[in-house]
Predict the structure.
Amino acid sequence: MLPMKSRYALKALVFLARHQADGPIPVAGIAAAEAIPVKFLEAILLELRNSGILTSRRGPTGGYQLRVAPQTVHLGDVIRNLSGPMAPLPCLSKSAYHRCGECVDETTCAVRLLMADVHAATLRIVDGTTLAALVARVDAAASGEAEGQSQRCRPQEGPPSAKLDFID
Amino acid sequence: MLPMKSRYALKALVFLARHQADGPIPVAGIAAAEAIPVKFLEAILLELRNSGILTSRRGPTGGYQLRVAPQTVHLGDVIRNLSGPMAPLPCLSKSAYHRCGECVDETTCAVRLLMADVHAATLRIVDGTTLAALVARVDAAASGEAEGQSQRCRPQEGPPSAKLDFID
DNA sequence: TAAAATCCTACCGTAATGGTAGGAATTAGG
DNA sequence: CCTAATTCCTACCATTACGGTAGGATTTTA
Ligand code: FES
Ligand code: FES
């Protein structure tokens, strides 16, 4: 499960990307628009600022603003900054690697072989998607409500396995 | 993070797939071979049996055994049975779906649009891989230690993004 | 009948999650 | 210079999930 912290952050960032022109936006405004607990969002945006993605200004007319262009914000970095590494195994994280005590040989570990693929696929998506791209996809989804499969959502047809559509 | 429960389960299943011919194998044997806490593994194998993947026999000469062919065991089902649905968002799980209270419109939710891709990619891997295939990959990794990229591990080259190799 | 195994229930310490409370520091406008 | 709006910072807290452990009941073979 993607933690609330990251979900709220993504929503806030999309919102900020949309209102880039409107100058700094106060936490309360974003929280109201996106139905996020104010004090919690406050803490989140602060972290986002400390990690360099946002700028802030205090006092009246203050608020938060994107520091960099949405095209340069990789969503994976956002998630990582707030919720830590997302590797499904300690031995698969580059930033927080540590050995799996129980595994004798890392190169022939079945669990690792399987999850390495999962992790790679995840990274390709979250790090390959920028904030700008995400905003674009939301727009596409909002307008093209009736069309078939927009953009990259196509299942990428592998061997058709009957059950795959009915579980999780 | 993939829970220990699932990691242990996968290891045990690979072990059992290897020793299919040797008749029922006691928990203690697997636990020793794979460095898994005995009582914990006991509970895991019991669950695996109750979900139909394993057979058990009690008393001396008893133990656990695969009930079905390794080719028919989808790894995704194993993980789900032990650790619940793996959808990164409640609104993405088919088996345990429930609305994300805070999100107004599900079809234009940015978080959902992003994570749907992640989830789909994950499912394609874990449900597309059988126990037999995993055993085969372990064997391949064990023998072909020096060769380049065995089987499906290839990065599937998308747009080369310099940083992707240095994080998580 | 003794030993080896599965089966079952209950418990338990630790850490992460998803917040809340309260206030200090900064800044704009009057 | 005063007030109100805002960010900033620290501390706390309730609930849950995780990773097991303990102890024994039941079944089966030899
Ligand atoms: S799970 Fe990390 S090495 Fe086996
Ligand atoms: S995250 Fe589920 S609908 Fe927005």
User: Anything to note?
Assistant: Strands of chain A lie at 54-57, 63-66. Chain A is about 45% helix and 5% strand. Chain A touches chain B through 69 residues (CB under 8 Å).
